[in-house]
Amino acid sequence: MKFSIKLVLSTMIVLALALGFSGFYFVNYVFETSMDREVGQALDESSILSFAFETAALNVPLKYSVLPDSVVEEIASKLEMGGQGGGRLLRIADEEKNILYTSGGFTADEGLLPQTDQHTKSYRVIRAQDGFYVHTCVSINALNRILYLETMKDVTGVFTERAMGFSLYRKVTVVILLIGTVIMLFIASLLTKPIRLLTRATKEMAAGDYTYRARQISRDELGQLTGDFNRMANALEENICKLEEELEAREEFMGAFAHELKTPLTAIIGYADMLRSHKMDEEKSIMSANYIYTEGKRLEAMSFRLLDIIVAKQDEAQLQETPVGELFAYLREMFAEKREADIRFAHEEAVVRMEANLIKTVLVNLIDNACKASETGGAGADMAGVTGAETSVGRMGVIEVTGQIVDGGYRIAVRDYGIGIPEAEQSKIVKAFYMVDKSRARSKNGAGLGLALCAEILKIHHSELQIESKVGEGSCFSFLLAL
Fold first, then answer.
1. Residue 482 per-residue DSSP state
2. Which of 176, 323, 330, 480 gives a 20 to 30 Å CA spacing to 406?
3. C-alpha separations of 450 from 362, 370, 429 in Å
4. pLDDT tens-digit profile of 318-342?
5. If one looks up domain 315-481 in CATH, what number appears?
6. CATH class, 3-173 region
7. What are the boundaries of each domain within the chain?
8. C-beta of residue 483 within 8 angstroms of C-beta of residue 410
9. Given CA atoms 159, 161, 165, 171 in this order, what sign does their dihedral have?
């Protein structure tokens, strides 16, 4: 059953119970008020009749010392005819409570007489064949006799009014419930509209449409729920996009890895087969062995780089406070013998938080790539090259490694004035195995893993690689470390 139907039914049940109890109480209250009024009038009328009887008895001739039964019947007859409409319903009994006179139509039993004595008045409401009556009984002291006067007052109209009241209230209640049901259906439809929108949104998302969002139409709790659902959907969509990107990247990685593995293995197998199956002179044998050795070393370097990337992704680096001077001293010593490029170091003294060996790996990769990019006609293993691009001839071969304090930390940069990287390729070169110019990269024994390793190492330092490059003017790779 729908929630809106449950809401309408529960509201109508509560409304029906409320109307039923309130109507019953109201009609009964009116009935009891009317009955009290009628009983009061009946008792008052009984008192008036008893006084009239006693007054009439005083006018009896003095020859009677005790009021005879015939006189009682005569007085009762006159009292009966004196009522409105020409007759009252009354009955008179003697001291022994034997009936002396009964009006025509007086149908009440004698059950009230035993309950009445000289000092009490009694009454009851009885139901006769033709309606309801207030039956009263009162004692009369008339001429040395104690008589009992009973009256019947018709109150059928009060009961009829109660029945009509219940009937009318039932009809009004039914009408109110019908109108209330229509109104509550409309209200329930409005109140549950956010739920229906959320239900539709969940179905759309379950069907695969992760861009679908529920429309927020209120600012109450359901509106807040809709907003929370949309924020959850946004987070879910982002996570799914990330998973899809990671899956795509993994497939690309596996394809590139297989391709990179196949190339050196083909050369190794081919030259090994030549050495195995052909008798060659010494020069060709040395050349074949050299190809096998070179490609084997490239496979070895690639395996070590892959292992470093896997470790960097899984490792939690222990960052320590390290003087920058120690890092630059190591780099100067590391590249002191490199004559192919003019490497210039400049830094501001500071203490930064880092894992020194990992950051050294990053800088060695960046400087090595800068050296390859700065070679005349060369290209780095992870950098882009464009044939015929103009270079900054005046600074060709110059590599600047700098460190300076900036807002937000300590910035280390490696700048070259080599061939540069096309803008479209700059966001891709940190992916594993990605090489813009694969032929030149392989000629330098590159596999497209250096910058990917740098990116992973910087992630565990809560940093990232910033790339500024222009074709023909060189590139600048930089990153921030925490002071």
1. B
2. 330
3. 8, 12, 10
4. 788 999 999 999 888 877 776 667 8
5. 3.30.565.10
6. alpha beta
7. 3-173, 315-481
8. yes
9. positive
